[in-house]
Amino acid sequence: MKILIFSDLDGTFMNHNDYSYSHLKNFISKIKKKSEIIFTSSKTFSEMSKIYENLNINFPFIVENGACIYFPKNYFNLKKINQKVVEYENFHYLKLSDDSLKKFKEHIKEKFSKNFKFSFFSELSNQKIAELTNLTPKKIADSKKRQFSDPIFWKDSNKNLQAFKKKLIKNEIIITEGGRFIHFNVGYDKGKAVAKFLEIYKKQKFQSVLSISLGDSENDVSMLELTDYSCCIKSPKKKKLYLKKSFNNYYSEKEAPFGWKESLEYVFKKENLNF
Q1: In this predicted structure, which of 70-74, 78-82, 208-212 has the lowest mean pLDDT?
Q2: CA angle, residues 236, 239, 244, in degrees to nearest 5
Q3: 10 Å Cβ neighbour count for 27?
Q4: Which helix (H) or strand (E) holds 212?
Q5: What is the pLDDT of residues 159-198, one digit of tens each?
Q6: Strand, helix or coil at 16?
């Protein structure tokens, strides 16, 4: 049996303050022989690939809130994937997002910017991003290399945010809140990306799979409700996540990064898995 771990990053694997995950390196070295860690985040390819390099692991990952799946070359048989796969650096990627990001942004701004205050991430200055995220200039540059999506920074009241959501729903557009930014789900989300990955994996690897997901925000819920085990990491700022799925749910007592290890140790113990 193969263990597939689908994990959010900010607020789940690393905390929101200093983005530290050094405490988890030894734990990852221990579990990576029997499991694959597939980070599923709103981060970009540039950000994610550097994290994998730093951890010395070479697994697939899902970027920009489910917009695209990246996997190392020779990981899958490309001929058996019935969708266009693109080569990019040392990876291939399968895009799940629509091609019309530019048109979509123009439509959103034209229709809603008069009544609501918001900015797309790409419109924010480096100084503003630093204020919001505590990222270094180098990491800000990586975060701006967005290929498929552009979240928004909400500048208006919470009351107006609820009104904005209702208007978007009427236009068949769903948004979910992440740690700091709001994400549009236009035909994709983390759950759909994980489902697509599992579909391809099971067809090609011929292995039974135990799937585990870990997250802390509203934009993680679609992923959390899909896997065999769902681990909700305690957040210092957000409410406890509500899942419709009623079995194999675990709520950590600790915040990130320690809650990540706590949650996986709970699952491994319950499944009698030794590493």
Answers
A1: 78-82
A2: 135
A3: 16
A4: strand 209-215
A5: 999 999 999 988 888 888 888 899 988 789 999 999 999 9
A6: coil
Domain layout of the chain by residue ranges = 2-97+189-270, 101-185
Threshold 0.90, pTM exceeds: yes
Q: What pLDDT sits at residue 43?
A: 95
Task: For residues 252 and 235, give the distance between their C-alpha atoms in angstroms, rounded to a whole number.
Answer: 9
CB 216 within 8 A of CB 232: yes
Q: Which two tokens stand for residue 247?
A: 């079995």
Q: What size, in residues, is the chain? A: 275
- What are the two backbone dihedrals, phi and then psi, of residue 269, each rounded to the nearest 5 degrees? -65, -45
Structure tokens, 103: 């048109």
Domain 2-97+189-270 homologous superfamily, CATH: HAD superfamily/HAD-like (3.40.50.1000)
Spatial neighbors of 74 by CB under 8 A, at least 6 apart, are none
pLDDT for 25 = 94
Name the token pair of 132.
């919001």
In this structure, whether the domain defined by 101-185 belongs to CATH 3.30.980.20 is answered with: yes
CA 254 to CA 265: how far, in whole Å?
Answer: 13
CA 84 to chain centre: 22
- The per-residue pLDDT for 176 is 87
pLDDT tens digit sequence for 223-257? 999 999 999 999 988 889 999 999 999 999 999 99
CA distance 104 to 98: 9
Q: Which residue has the tokens 């990981």?
A: 75
- HSE, CB side, 13 Å, CA atoms: give it for residue 100: 7
The answer to whether 40 touches 62, Cβ cutoff 8 Å, is yes
What is the rounded end-to-end Cα distance, in angstroms, of the chain? 14
